[in-house]
Write a structure and sequence with these properties.
The protein has 158 residues and is an alpha/beta fold. It has a single domain, classed as Rossmann fold (3-Layer(aba) Sandwich). The protein is 31% helix and 23% strand. It contains 4 helices and 6 strands, in the order βαβββαβαβα. A hairpin with a 2-residue loop joins strand 3 and strand 4. It is globular. The protein starts with a strand and ends in a 7-residue tail after the last helix.
Length: 158
C-alpha cells in the first residue's frame, strides 16, 4: 500500500515525531506542505494530512494543500497534535474530504509540547509529549489504517 502524508510541523516538531513513529509501522512518504514540490497524490492508495493545532484548527497551509491537491475519492486519515485543547481538530479537513467524496478512515491525535504565546511564560504545557505511549498509539493507529486499506474495507461514515 502506497501512503502519503501531507503535513506541517514547526516549533517543537511534535507532529513530525508522531509521523516518524507511524512510518516505523509501514512505508509512508512524508510531504512537507511548506516546500513547494511537484506532488501527484493520485498515485497513492491512501493519503494522510497532519498538523499541529494552531488557533484551535489545522494549520491553514495543510487545509489549502488538501483543498488544492486531494484527488476525488481517495481514502484519507488525519493526524494532529495539540498543546492545551484539540479545538475543532480535523473538522475543516473532514469537510474537504466530504466535498471530494473521500472516505475518512480515522484520525489520531495526542498532546504535544507547546510554548506558544502565554505558555512560554510558564515554561510551556504538555511537557514531554508526545511521549512513548503516544508514539506507540500512533504506530498502532497507522497499522489499523494499513489493514483497512489492504482489505479494501470502508469504515462507517460518521
Amino acid at each position: 500500500m502506497k501512503t502519503a502524508v501531507c503535513y506541517y510541523s514547526r516549533h517543537h516538531g511534535n507532529t513530525r515525531k508522531v509521523l516518524e513513529a507511524m512510518a516505523e509501522e509501514g512505508e509512508m512518504d512524508l510531504i512537507d506542505v511548506t516546500t513547494r514540490q511537484a506532488v501527484r497524490l493520485e498515485d497513492y492508495d491512501c493519503i494522510g494530512f497532519a498538523s499541529g493545532i494552531y488557533g484551535f484548527e489545522f494549520q491553514k497551509s495543510v487545509v489549502e494543500f488538501a483543498r488544492q491537491y486531494l484527488p476525488k475519492g481517495k481514502p484519507v486519515f488525519f493526524v494532529y497534535t495539540y498543546g492545551g485543547v484539540r479545538g475543532t481538530g480535523s473538522r475543516a479537513m473532514a469537510e474537504i474530504a466530504k466535498e471530494k467524496n473521500c472516505p475518512v478512515l480515522g484520525e489520531f491525535s495526542c498532546k504535544g509540547y507547546d510554548t506558544f504565546g502565554p505558555f512560554r511564560l510558564v515554561g510551556g504545557i504538555a511537557k514531554g509529549r508526545p511521549n512513548q505511549e503516544d508514539l506507540e498509539n500512533a504506530r498502532r493507529f497507522y497499522g489499523e489504517i494499513q489493514e483497512i486499506c489492504r482489505k479494501g474495507v470502508q469504515p462507517p461514515r460518521q
